[in-house]
User: Fold this.
Amino acid sequence: MNIGFFTWEYPPRIVGGLGTYSAEITTELVKTGNNVDVFTVNDGSLKTKEVINGVHVHRPKVLGASSSLSLTVNEELKSWGPSLSFFSVIYLYNLLSASKVVNDLMPKGRKFDVIAVHDWLSAMAGLLVRENARVPMVFHFHSTEQGRTMNRGSKTVMELERRASEEADMIITVSYAMKQELESLGIGRRNLHVVYNGVNPEKYNIERLSKQDILAIRQRYGVGAEETMILYVGRLTPVKGVDNLVRAMPYVAKKDRVKLVILGEGEMQERIKTIIKELGLEGSVVLRAEFVSEEERILSYAASDICCFPSIYEPFGIVALEAMAMRKPVVVGASGTVGFREIVIPDGKDKCGMHVDGKRPEDIAWGINALLESDLEGLGYNARKRVIENFTWQKAARDTVQLYSTLL
Assistant:
């Protein structure tokens, strides 16, 4: 198939899970014989066009337009203040990318069987191409504005999501938990499908790492040989439940021999520091509030004994797959719109972790304590086995193309 793929983030510019998904799925789509053109944002320092792993990447350079845009947008967007510059970049990226497809590539003979747009950040481009070039549009929902902002989001963004879902020829989302949320909002009652994300189990494989490098990471975080290391990886933001994870630490059994390592950055950084100080956890919690490279993240998974992701809102959660592929049992939030509960098996012969309520510190501690009394090595083997059998990028790409092909 010939696929136009619109995503806000793409390597080397990766902000979060969408960037990881975009890089991995497009590479796999090309490996399986498809042609993929990616249209993404340029921060001004990147090439406007290049080929990465067989994927043709287009990055139009946008002009600063927030001052003129403020004269034409609605009152809500004007209220964004300095953040209007962000919307300006997104708006122009969408216009320039759609124009590239309709006015440049297609007249030169480039064919597109389907346009795939990801979240509201690329919705306008999809709507423009669909209207002007009659190409089928698939709208991928990775989250909703209401969910990720805990019902404090932008009405303009919500309307963009709704309009794109109404115009799309197909909607794909990342979990059945997310599918239920969309249906509760009246979105996607027709042609709505689920395709799980994946992970690369060859890259996320503890066997390829040296024991010396793993030990060095533990030492870097001040984790002793006899201590249990609990790892959190992700943004420091309310929906991730990381503040409740810190509050759970006083309830953790044998807490004198357990150390929590937090890797990530976000708006809650100072709040997390305050909680650590208020609870006297300076010796038990290590906060590294910065973006960590993938290779170091992989080493950190390997160095840990348990990984904990107590999200309150998490439509899928690739971090759980990464940890599980590294043979680590996981404690995950499983209340509300949280795809973790579809990934992690909490009981039976295939058990690989625990489900908890990410809003309750004592419940998070209960999940951690239950794993501390378990066979961590055996649960870790179950975790990797589940990933290999159900959550690879090969499977995600195969399932995605199978759905796309029904639109031809």
User: Anything to note?
Assistant: The CA atoms of residues 66 and 388 lie 46 Å apart.
